Automatic annotation (TrEMBL):
GO biological process terms, semicolon-separated: methylation; pantothenate biosynthetic process
Binding sites annotated in the UniProt record for 3-methyl-2-oxobutanoate: 43-44, 82, 112
Stated name of the protein: 3-methyl-2-oxobutanoate hydroxymethyltransferase
Entry annotation: catalytic residues: 181 (proton acceptor)
The organism's place on the tree of life at top rank: Bacteria
PANTHER family for this protein: 3-METHYL-2-OXOBUTANOATE HYDROXYMETHYLTRANSFERASE
Assigned protein family: Belongs to the PanB family.
Gene Ontology MF term list: 3-methyl-2-oxobutanoate hydroxymethyltransferase activity; magnesium ion binding; methyltransferase activity
Species for this entry: Alkalicoccus urumqiensis
Length: 270
């Protein structure tokens, strides 16, 4: 398994880090087989798997349940689990307890926490306690209610300066990696240059140390909105739709099961 040290080395060597989200055993094993360096059990699971309209409803228990499935589906791949909204932002104590629970009960190798400000103290305390923390800055979907929508961050001089300060602060607090979401390419490049920890971009342009996309977006498995920054590599929904429809037709038309699918008593030829 690659470690946080390996990821730093990859940054130094300009070797792009591949992160893919995963939510269950089959998605995780396919991502591992494809050669991902890191898996992220993202709270995007609220939308792409659980059918919520944002990540806000996702609980710590949901994250533990799905991370356990991811771990069962993989051999040895560094797995990061999101600390969901309510746990991360109610209080420092909540965040520490949630992170401890995730680490102990799910087998995650690191936790990811959105934001800066009061979160800096949480990152500090977790890393001092031996819990690797991935930070998440730029667009932070958990606070979309306060921001008033999903918007590109760090566009103005002022917000760019704030983002650079926040990025430096999470590194100083001990974060082992930074996920940077929806910021202009040039801003992301400055963050990448400034930090010694790897910066993994999503909608952050071409100059970050790695890239992450949501599994369902890569394969076209999510029926909802697909953001501009996504590259969809295949369109799996019509494939699934056609297969399920064909099954339905076969049953209706009594074409399934066929001879090949039925069991025979002992002594009779298959
Ligand atoms: O929840 C998630 O999938 C994420 C990624 C989009 C970075 O946080
Ligand atoms: Na997330």
């Amino acid at each position: 398994m690659k470690t946080t040290q390996d990821f730093r080395k990859m940054k130094e060597d300009n070797d792009p880090i591949v992160m893919i989200t995963a939510y269950d055993a089959p998605s995780a094993s396919l991502a591992e087989e494809a050669g991902a360096d890191v898996l992220l059990v993202g709270d995007s699971l609220g939308m792409v798997v659980l059918g919520y309209d944002s990540t806000v409803q996702v609980t710590v228990e949901d994250m533990i349940y799905h991370t356990k499935a991811v771990k069962r589906g993989t051999d040895s791949i560094f797995t990061v689990t999101d600390i969901p909204f309510m746990a991360a932002h109610i209080s420092t104590e909540h965040a520490l307890k949630a992170s401890a629970d995730v680490m102990q009960k799910s087998g995650a190798d690191a936790v990811k926490i959105e934001g800066s400000g009061p979160v800096i103290d949480i990152i500090n305390r977790l890393t001092e306690g031996g819990v690797p923390v991935v930070s998440h800055l730029g667009l932070t979907p958990q606070t979309v209610g306060v921001e008033g929508g999903y918007r590109v961050q760090g566009k103005t001089e002022e917000s760019k300066k704030k983002l650079l300060e926040d990025a430096a602060a999470v590194e100083k607090a001990g974060a082992c990696m930074l996920v940077l979401e929806c910021v202009p390419e040039e801003t992301a490049r400055l963050v990448q240059e400034e930090l010694t920890i790897p910066v993994i971009g999503i909608g952050a342009g071409r100059f970050t140390d790695g890239q992450v996309l949501v599994y369902h977006d890569i394969i076209g498995y999510y029926g909802g909105h697909t953001p501009k920054f996504v590259k969809q590599y295949t369109d799996i929904r019509p494939v699934i739709h056609d297969a399920l429809s064909a099954f339905k037709e076969d049953v209706k038309e009594k074409r399934f099961p066929e001879e090949a699918h039925v069991f025979k008593p002992y002594g009779e030829k298959k």
